[in-house]
Amino acid sequence: MCSLLWSSIVMCVALQLLQLGIVHPSPSHIRITHLPGQPQVQFQQFSGYVNVDHRNQQALFFYFAEAEKDAASKPLVLWLNGGPGCSSLGVGAFSENGPFRPKGEGLVRNQFSWNREANMLYLETPIGVGFSYSSDTSAYEGVNDKITARDNLVFLKNWFIKFPEYRNRSLFIVGESYAGHYVPQLAELMLQFNKKEKLFNLKGIALGNPVLEFATDFNSRAEFFWSHGLISDTTYKVFTSVCNYSRYVREYYNGAVSPVCSSVMSQVSTETSRFVDKYDVTLDVCLSSVFSQTKVLNPQQVTETIDVCVEDETVNYLNRKDVQSALHARLVGVQRWSACSNVLDYELRDLEIPTITVVGKLVQEGIPVLVYSGDQDSVIPLTGSRTLVHKLAKKLGLKTTVPYRVWFEKQQVGGWTQVYGDILSFATIRGASHEAPFSQPERSLVLFKSFLEGRPMPEEF
């Protein structure tokens, strides 16, 4: 019951409307005052939930770090990790390009955080990932690319209600791995929505070591293994003729791996060794890729513990009650926060849906696209990505505007790049893993800055 005092009536009605989902809480309700163990910073942070269904049963969790300086003049960047089913909070924000990284009982600054150049929005998607949840657990079954893209679009629409000052801001979407599906499909929905109501000021997308075309991406793994000395000539031959990787993955998800593929993969696994991280073949195991975020792309390795050195610190930090309280987060239907969802049942056959065609549509609509590759990743190797971008440019009739060349970070080669039609770009990050901002943070920041500014990668030092 509301009291008869006018101020109390106003407050009570507002609360009731909020509970009904008719109005939304102001950003002050989701501002982070201070994360436990956090160094002092000058920028603002926010986190919380956005409902994505009309019954308010499904909510996606976000973490938002405004730019370190001049936030009002910097673009908005939505970051998505892949999996499918892995956390943009734990992987992207706390282990790759966010402002902090867990260390011991607290946090340390990431001096190459991407919020030096942009306002960074990290989204735990789809529902069932991280702190994102559905009060009806049946919603975790049969989640697919179409559902994920739809929910991500609804999230952004409702997020702009909470943060109206960002509604007309330049917007970029960046992601890695299976976000090669998430990002283009979301961007396509944005453009369709804009034809009815101009809401999204989309200025470009960037995709890191992305799944774009199942067979090309997966089958480039054999050549990568062989060229880096991980497999023998004999194994390379059977891995490219008797049973290639795309066939093996298809059989695995259909629940019936043939004896011939089982034999080939056993041979490949023995030679590559379980003590070499496939996400960066040059790093020692303890310093391997941040999380098993692409574990579904590596079915034979699902049971392995990957990089406990880094993962444990993040998992422990995000499972602390004081941290969850500071983040305005809660666990619904699960006992612990995990880097990759244990409750989500994703339609893995969507892996075989090519999204390079969607990328082509975006380019034709005038949306700049950057595909970049950490060049030490064997999961989605650079050779597959480079081939797909080149084929797409040829199909669209785009001429080379920046010939294949090196680019620099300080006085060292940061990688290689090529640009087509001043709108479609490919770049490598030298020495980087599948999660490039983790293993090569400074070079990744140089690439990110050039992407936001629409400039080719630095040609000189």
Helix and strand topology:
Blueprint: H1 6-20, E1 31-32, E2 45-51, E3 58-65, E4 76-80, H2 88-97, E5 100-103, E6 106-109, E7 119-124, E8 133-134, E9 141-143, H3 145-162, E10 171-176, H4 179-194, E11 202-208, H5 214-227, H6 233-241, H7 245-253, H8 259-272, H9 308-318, H10 321-326, E12 345-346, H11 356-364, E13 369-374, H12 382-396, E14 400-409, E15 412-420, E16 424-429, H13 436-439, H14 441-453
Helix pairs in contact: 3-4, 4-11, 5-6, 5-12, 6-8, 11-12
Key descriptive features of the protein:
461 residues; alpha/beta; Rossmann fold; 12-stranded mixed sheet; two-stranded antiparallel ribbon; 14 helices; 16 strands
Structure at a glance:
InterPro entries: AB_hydrolase_fold, Peptidase_S10, Ser_caboxypep_his_AS, Ser_caboxypep_ser_AS. This protein is an alpha/beta fold.
